[in-house]
Amino acid sequence: MAVSISRQVLMAAAVSVLLAGCGNRDAGANNQPLDSFTAEEIYKRGEYELENGKRPKDAVRYFAEIERLYPYSDWAKRALIMQAYAYHKARKYDDARGAAQRFIDNYPSDEDAAYAHYLLALSYYDQIDEVGRDQGLTFQALQSLREVIERYPNTEYARSAVLKFDLAFDHLAGKEMEIGRYYLKRGNYTAAINRFRVVVEEYQTTTHTPEALMRLVEAYLALGLTSEAQTAGAILGHNFRSSPFYQDAYNQLRGRGLTATPQGNSWLTKVYRQVIQGKWL
């Protein structure tokens, strides 16, 4: 029995040594100098790593080496845009922006410049996740997306940028709504109104406008400012009568014996006049 166990141990040890040797050879292959390879061979190796490897960042090494070894070749230009793509795929957004910007600076008239601009915008856009985060990245995404739309209006990148621009714009309105609800819940009605006003005046094309108007009704009623509440309800009824937010606002007004009709001469009254004239939306 002792002999049998010893044989098993020796066999296991031998397998371990063999696997370790293979691993070292693979590691050596991955770190071998690339000077003896052509630019195309290195590029294809980078493509292979990008498509089949588990870590997209590993492909960057190959594309970067093409820049170093063949700096003035067409392969270096192609490798640079692939660096930006690989970094973005690896969620290394700062590095992706850096590579994309270098491509734009070095090859501003190249046919891939549109894609470089799009990757630059996408690297900001893909960092927009939770409404509660700082909105600096959202503003940068909007600026970069707008540049794609204006520079390359007839490309697929512009069409995609338009959709993402609308979503990022909606995201900013969502941030204002979140803060407004926070103030409203705590009875800070003036601060809440200021946030909802921003949505109505600056983000009126977003999906948050109906709720912003309903919240204005709620906040103004809480302050006893019935004229403003009625006017907010009138705007809501004029543009979003089928919205559940209108029914909520209507019920609040009716509970006070009020109607959703414009009253007074507040900032909301001016908005209402623009709505009637068809200039608001």
From TrEMBL:
SUPFAM superfamilies the UniProt entry points to: TPR-like (SSF48452)
Keyword terms, alphabetized: Cell outer membrane, Lipoprotein, Membrane, Palmitate, Signal
Entry's Gene Ontology BP terms: Gram-negative-bacterium-type cell outer membrane assembly; protein insertion into membrane
InterPro entries per the UniProt record, alphabetical: BamD (IPR017689), BamD-like (IPR039565), TPR-like_helical_dom_sf (IPR011990)
Membrane topology: Lipid-anchor
CDD domains named among the record's database cross-references: BamD (cd15830)
Localization: Cell outer membrane
Cellular component terms per the entry's GO annotation: Bam protein complex
Residue ranges annotated for the Outer membrane lipoprotein BamD-like domain, each copy included: 38-232
Domain of life of the organism encoding this protein: Bacteria
Entry similarity comment: Belongs to the BamD family.
PANTHER family: OUTER MEMBRANE PROTEIN ASSEMBLY FACTOR BAMD, SOLUBLE LYTIC MUREIN TRANSGLYCOSYLASE-RELATED
Stated name of the protein: Outer membrane protein assembly factor BamD
Biological classification of the source: Bacteria, Pseudomonadati, Pseudomonadota, Alphaproteobacteria, Rhodobacterales
